[in-house]
Specification:
The complex is a heterodimer of chains A (371) and B (413). Chain A is an alpha/beta fold and 371 residues long. Helix content of chain A is 44%, strand content 11%. Chain B is α/β, with parallel strands linked by helices and 413 residues long. Classes of the chains: A alpha/beta (371), B alpha/beta (413). At the A-B interface, helix 4, helix 5, helix 12 and helix 13 of A face helix 8 and helix 16 of B.
Chain lengths: 371, 413
């Protein structure tokens, strides 16, 4: 099966798998920083968030021609894994949630014609918005079908796939193996519990930020990120995706739940579900505020850390919102500017450490006062 | 000497200062009798009314069809225009200090950052409603909705799908946007308790659009050479005046030679030909050095990308589809490929010697499309320069760098 790379988790993997592709999150295929770059590789303005910058480079490693002087397939990929050589039947889907992402899609579509689909992503979630998104999802499905190489077929074996007694995906879906499929593997290093740090972040490749917090003697109350398990798990609504979910530690119940949903694709329902789950910073401020407030009330944290990527507009306004929510609840708040992938060393480590230590100090002092 | 801080207050003395300030601006307009001076007067006059106690202040996005507001005798508060105006006054320093204290990240668009600092520090009036449009960027939608949440006022967003890369937006999409505008127009009436007169607003807007459209046609045909830096300001301020009697008269003043005489391209000694530049995106409002340099080097901004709006009239009997079409087909909306394609066609039509893209600080929408636009100009063999800067900036290392780049570019041309 050809690969369908995607840049954002607001892509229903179900739709990709049914169209005959193996879904792969592009964030899992970042270019090796030491790999050579093509002379004609697309470049973005330096005032672009690191996520988009790195994904453009990753896409070029996968879809661009061989770097100057490079001859082998490995050179052509430049990616950390054994990705496919240039001129492959692979495609890329870019949900245009924010301006930077939309422009990334524009750039990649112009650079690799016919291999890139830019999916408009709305801010609101009104019925007419969901309707438009459903139409766009149909458009994506049609496009994937048109791009699919001859000799490959869409997944229609719903009967086999919906057999929930099967532990492994069956029929055409069995082609989607755990090693092929790639979804964000971010998860909580230990189960979240109340009274800890609530982390709000942009895309994260791994749990290093959460582990850093734990290493510093605190614990995590919750995570709100576009790659967080609360986000991507419900979105991976297909039996085919269950394999990947299993690899990433999803529960058996979640797998079965996912598998049972492989009924004929209902684009309207899918769009509505997508808008319901994808409550990310680009969304309506009112809805996002309600969402964050609910999550904070559920997880009852003792502090909030906002890990914002530099040059991220939605993140900048979202951080203000989070700061307001923290203030309303009397919670200590820290905003840190992070790179992609997240680097837990250096000044960032010191800032988080100082923030957490200050809280521990506060708690100690309060304990002393009790006596 | 009273400054802007005295003008923007809501006290009796502030109203006296406002009256004196306007009288001074009126005198300048009467002396020059140019459209530009009158437009300054009328835009300032309308905007200062927003500071009066009890004023209804609709904060809107730059491309919002303001006729929906003038229908109710409301003046829009456009963050970009407000920021550019305030940073050109003696409020600049306290405003920059307020922005620096603000927890909003420094890398967001400076128009929006400054606007937020201004409203949070009583230098711009607080919103009574916030009305956005998906064109052109997400940042200002985030700003407008956040303001609405903070001030507990209504927020509406007109959703405008991206136009196709080639051709115009489909009638179905136009109908959908038109319906949103119709509902919004009704909502504004409900919120304000005022009676609308949209037909009148549209007729007045049409008079302005007809004049501006005619001027742009002449410029595109090469029959009229105006200085695009100066005409940029006309459209920028004009956003406050579409649909008003004053706006109609001011745009119509442009039709006479006298009315537009301070907007014309320079004429070089000895009949030498000006180097013609196409200016893409916004301009550095307070940085005169770049444009002084352009003039010194015998060049001129012959057309500005953002001037391409309100080029046609809309039907006063059924205005919503026309307003929707204007919004949906705006030249800056759509994919980077569309923007590139339209601008290369424009450059060819105008036979420009080169194009300059102003990379405004923090504008993801503009900066993001740069690689595709640059590549399209390269393929068309048209010299292209992208300069980094802040539209609200004044001086500094970045400006020096931009000036040096411009100097080299003009020499190359």
């Amino acid at each position: 099966m050809p690969y369908c790379y995607y840049t954002c988790n607001l892509i229903p993997l179900d739709l990709i798998i049914r169209a005959g592709y193996t879904p792969r999150w592009l964030g899992g295929f970042l270019r090796d920083p030491t790999a050579s770059t093509r002379r004609d590789a697309p470049s973005v303005h330096p005032m672009t968030c690191p996520y988009v910058t790195k994904l453009v480079a990753a896409a070029d490693a996968l879809f661009g021609a061989a770097p100057d002087g490079g001859t082998s397939d490995d050179d052509a990929s430049g990616a950390a894994d054994g990705s496919r050589p240039a001129a492959s039947p692979d495609v890329l889907v870019v949900p245009g949630g924010c301006d930077a992402a939309r422009r990334m899609g524009d750039l990649l579509a112009a650079t690799y014609p016919d291999q890139v689909f830019v999916l408009p992503m709305p801010r609101g979630s009104e019925p007419e918005v969901a309707e438009t998104l459903a139409t766009d999802l149909r458009g994506l499905e049609d496009w994937l079908g048109a791009c699919r190489p001859a000799g490959t077929a869409p997944v229609t074996d719903a009967a086999a796939a919906t057999d929930t007694d099967q532990r492994e995906p069956t029929g055409a879906l069995s082609n989607v193996t755990q090693t092929d499929c790639c979804v964000p593997s971010l998860d909580y290093p230990s189960p979240p519990r109340q009274g800890g740090v609530f982390v709000i972040a942009g895309p994260l490749t791994d749990d290093s930020l959460l582990r850093l917090i734990e290493r510093l003697g605190a614990h995590v109350s919750g995570l709100e990120s576009c790659t967080s398990p609360d986000r991507w798990r419900p979105l991976a609504v297909a039996a085919g995706a269950a394999a990947a979910m299993s690899a990433a530690g999803a529960t058996r119940e979640a797998e079965i739940d996912a598998a049972t949903r492989l009924a004929p694709l209902d684009h309207e329902a899918l769009a509505a579900r997508l808008l319901e789950i994808g409550m990310c910073p680009r969304r309506s401020t009112t809805h996002r505020r309600d969402h964050l407030a609910r999550r904070l009330d559920q997880s009852r944290p003792s502090s909030i850390i906002y890990a914002r990527q530099s040059f991220c507009d939605p993140g900048a306004y979202d951080a203000l919102l989070a700061a307001d929510l923290a203030k309303e609840r009397g919670l200590p708040y820290l905003e840190i500017e992070v790179d992609f992938p997240f680097d837990a060393n250096g000044p960032l480590h010191t800032r988080v450490e100082a923030f957490l230590e200050a809280q521990l100090l506060d708690e100690d002092l309060l304990s002393d006062l009790d006596y | 000497m009273p400054g802007m801080a005295d003008i923007t207050g809501d006290s009796f003395s502030a109203s006296l200062v406002r009256a004196a300030f306007l009288a001074q601006t009126r005198l300048k307009a009467l002396q020059s009798r140019t459209a530009r001076r009158y437009m300054n007067l009328h835009a300032l006059s309308a905007s200062l009314d927003l500071f009066k106690p009890g004023a209804i202040v609709p904060w809107v996005s730059y491309l919002f069809p303001t006729e929906l507001l003038t229908s109710y005798r409301l003046t829009p508060m456009i963050p970009e225009v407000g920021s550019a105006t305030l940073t050109g006054t003696d409020l600049r320093e306290p405003l920059e200090a307020a922005a620096a204290r603000m927890p909003l990240a420094r890398d967001v668009c400076s128009y929006h950052r400054i606007a937020l600092a201004a409203v949070e520090n009583d230098m711009l009036p607080a919103p009574s409603m916030c009305l956005g449009t998906t064109p052109l960027c997400l940042g200002k939608e985030c700003l407008l909705e956040m303001l609405a949440v903070r001030h507990n006022v209504p927020f509406r967003e007109v959703r405008v799908p991206l136009p196709p890369d080639e051709g115009e937006t489909s009638p179905e999409v136009i109908a959908d946007v038109a319906e949103q505008l119709r509902v919004l127009h009704e909502d504004i009436g409900r919120w304000t308790g005022r009676k609308p007169d949209l037909q009148r607003a549209i007729r007045l807007s049409n008079r302005a659009s007809a004049a501006w459209g005619h001027l742009m046609t002449e410029r595109l045909a090469g029959r009229l050479e105006m200085d695009g830096r100066l005409t940029f300001a006309i459209v920028f301020l004009g956003q406050l005046l579409w649909g008003t009697e004053e706006g109609a008269k001011d745009f119509e003043r442009l039709l006479s030679e006298r009315g537009r005489r301070d907007l014309m391209a320079p004429i070089l000694d000895g009949g030498r030909r000006l180097k013609r530049l196409l200016w893409l995106h916004t301009v550095p409002h307070h940085d005169t050095e770049i444009f002084d340099l352009i003039r010194e080097q015998g060049a001129v901004v012959i057309l500005e990308e953002m001037g391409q709006m309100h080029l046609e009239t809309v039907d006063p009997e059924d205005p919503f589809p026309g307003l929707a079409g204007r919004l949906a087909n705006n030249v800056l909306w759509g994919s980077s490929a569309r923007r590139a394609h339209l601008n290369v066609a424009l450059a060819k039509q105008l036979k420009v010697d080169g194009a300059v893209h102003f990379n405004h600080w923090g504008c993801r929408h503009g900066l993001g499309s740069l690689p595709v636009v640059r590549s399209a100009f390269a393929q068309a063999g048209i010299p292209f320069l992208a300069i980094d800067g802040d539209a609200l900036g004044r001086g500094g290392a970045q400006q020096d760098k931009a000036r040096q780049a411009m100097e080299s570019f003009l020499e190359l041309l």
